[in-house]
Design goal:
alpha/beta, eleven-stranded mixed sheet, four-stranded mixed sheet, 19 strands, globular
């Protein structure tokens, strides 16, 4: 039998298919040992999992299924290892909903480090680079696992942490002192640092940072362009989740995120039918971890991301040649419904950041006094030299024209939102404050 080696980059797509064939069955047999899957997989022939019609009989697992359980019940239903094999816990991300704490075995952590570390050579970082990591260094894996993985891939790492661990001004001073070549962090925090630098007369375009790596938030085209302009750096997007690991990264072509399909079996599915959609069409992203599911063997986990599956990149090199890509659709499952009108979060964010006078914002769904109806209130910060009245009117007019809803707009002192966002793993850019 073929014995895959996840520490080594696969030599071809044919080898990746062989890895998937072996490891899907391992994941399937392990899932059958936990209570949640009891009786749900008995009708499926494990020897025929490469037959798509058989594989698609496996029920899709959603976020709501897990968030409905408290931690004790989650552990009882999904944990496949004794406490003596648990190395650490990874907290799920997200700015809304109840977090889930996933146990990770020593085997899971070993392969998790591989999954995060692959991002460095895919992006083009090596021993000549020093990364300033601004993700929280704690129970969420984006910070500490990524920072640890750099050692095996011989990339320098400054373990800085988020703004609530080291204040933003101190982070700018550290960048000027240590002169890192790469900033790793949430796009909202990178944007906040850039705004703070402008306010303090610091020209980041002449700094040592020439690469930005963003994750944990949607990176719209408008936000990418704004970051690239303010930092004078090339912006890369990566994709991962606590349920699996870091699953992929862009290369220099920036035409999608390459997914490590030897480590993760991924699908783009119709959520109503559970069947895969044709390549290039939008569907829900589902993943089955092939190596990092030792403690919690999840099958066909639906992340809620709306993506397209793309076979080949315009880029070159081993990552472009061997791994397919996903590209996030210009819409997400997140939206506000305001008096019968759906306001899509991703589209709204893109609209706001295309206004060059807006430096940051938060959209709030609130209840109006008197009639009790919903209202959209936009809290925003603008450039110091901009005219608040003119920017406010421009935003109000654009919201009415694009989304056909009326909104209220408040201009806040610069830095107000960043202080609030620093408290969260992901910036709560869209919040529901209805009574």
């Amino acid at each position: 039998m073929y014995e895959p080696n996840p520490a080594a980059l696969p030599k071809s797509r044919k080898e990746i298919a062989e890895v998937q064939s072996v490891r899907k069955r391992v994941a399937f047999e392990r899932a059958k040992t936990i209570p949640w899957y009891r009786g749900k997989l008995d009708h499926i022939d494990p020897a025929r999992l490469d037959d798509l019609s058989v594989w698609e009989q496996i029920p899709i697992l959603t976020k709501d299924s897990l968030r409905a359980l408290d931690h004790a019940e989650f552990m009882r239903q999904f944990c496949a290892v004794p406490v003596t094999e648990i190395a650490e816990y990874w907290r799920s991300g997200g700015s809304t909903g109840k977090p889930v704490f996933y146990p990770r075995s020593y085997e899971d952590v070993k392969y998790g480090l591989i999954s995060w570390g692959r991002s460095f050579p895919c992006i083009g970082l090596d021993s000549s680079d020093l990364c300033h990591i601004s993700f929280p260094i704690g129970i969420h894996p984006a910070g500490q696992v990524w920072a640890r993985s750099a050692q095996a891939f011989k990339v320098g790492m400054a373990w800085v942490g988020a703004g609530n661990a080291l204040p933003s001004r101190a982070q700018l001073e550290l960048i000027q002192t240590l002169k890192p070549t790469c900033l790793m962090g949430m796009s909202s925090f990178a944007l906040h640092l850039a705004n703070l630098a402008v306010a303090n007369g610091i020209d980041l375009t002449s700094s040592s940072v020439k690469t930005l790596i963003c994750s944990a938030e949607t990176l719209s085209d408008a936000k990418r362009q704004k970051l690239a302009q303010m930092w004078g750096a090339e912006v890369y997007d990566v994709f991962g989740m606590s349920e699996a690991g870091l699953m992929g990264a862009e290369n220099s072509a920036h035409d999608g995120i390459h997914i490590w399909t030897d480590l993760f079996y991924v699908e783009v599915v119709n959520p109503d039918t559970g069947k895969q959609v044709p390549h290039g069409e939008v569907g829900n992203f589902c993943v089955t971890p092939l190596w990092t599911g030792h403690a919690t063997p999840l099958l066909r986990w639906d992340s809620g991301d709306l993506v397209r599956y793309i076979e080949h990149s315009a880029g070159t090199g081993p990552y472009a040649e061997r791994f397919p890509m996903i590209k996030h659709a210009n819409r997400t499952t997140g939206f506000f419904k305001i008096r019968g009108v759906n306001v899509n979060h991703a589209e709204f964010e893109d609209m706001m950041f295309r206004n060059l006078d807006v430096t940051d914002f938060q959209a709030v769904l609130e209840t109006m006094e008197g009639d009790g109806l919903e209202q959209l209130r936009v809290l925003m910060e603008i450039k110091r030299e901009a005219d608040p009245k003119a920017v406010t009117q421009s935003i109000l007019d654009t919201i009415k024209r694009v989304f056909e809803v009326r909104a209220a707009v408040d201009v806040l002192p610069n830095g107000t939102l960043a202080a609030e966002f620093e408290k969260s793993m992901k910036a709560p850019r869209f919040v529901d404050w209805r009574i």
